[in-house]
Amino acid sequence: MADEGGTRRVRAAVTLVLAVFLLGACGSPSPDPSTVSSAPTTSPATTSTSTPPTTAGGTVLTLTDADKGRTVPVHVGDEVQVVLGSTYWTVQASSDPAVLASVGQPVVAPQPSGCVPGEGCGTVTATFRAAGPGTATVSAGRTSCGEAMGCTGDSGSYEVTLEAS
Fold first, then answer.
1. Which helix (H) or strand (E) holds 160?
2. Cβ pair 91, 138 in contact under 8 A
3. What is the pTM of this model?
4. What is the pLDDT of residues 140-157, one digit of tens each?
5. Residue ranges of the alpha helices (H) in the chain?
6. What are residue 3's phi and psi, to 5 degrees?
7. What are the E-state strand segments in 44-151?
8. Which CATH class is domain 28-164?
9. Rounded CA gap, 65 and 1, in Å?
10. Segment 5-25, tens digit of pLDDT
11. Residue ranges per domain, the chain?
């Protein structure tokens, strides 16, 4: 009987390890910028020849996980939305609010269905307005990169630089 209990424990441990491995393989992909917001947006990666949509102040520019590490030109008056594909992100204020001012608080939008609890499915959106000429950086961080998975390397950090003119 003692051997049967040991076998059950080994089977349970193997099942647990496999479940953790399989859940880790189900990482959260970057959202498709075209499905993130119903507001008209442009992406710096887009090679559109049409005129970008504008707001009362200027162009609306959406930056995503794919823009990590980039330097992006903007014009004073432009609105910049940083949309990151996990609810675990914490977006910091702009490095220079005189250049890039926060517009409200970041909005966390969890994915309501089709997601394993603790996976962080959804987005965090922070909105900024180019307030004056200069250079400013937007940074974000996270410590969890999925259910029971700590971030490794630079997967827990995000930074994009905006040059306003």
1. strand 157-164
2. yes
3. 0.62
4. 998 878 777 788 888 889
5. 2-24, 33-36
6. -70, -35
7. 60-64, 71-74, 79-84, 90-91, 100-102, 107-110, 122-130, 134-141
8. mainly beta
9. 53
10. 554 554 544 444 334 333 343
11. 28-164
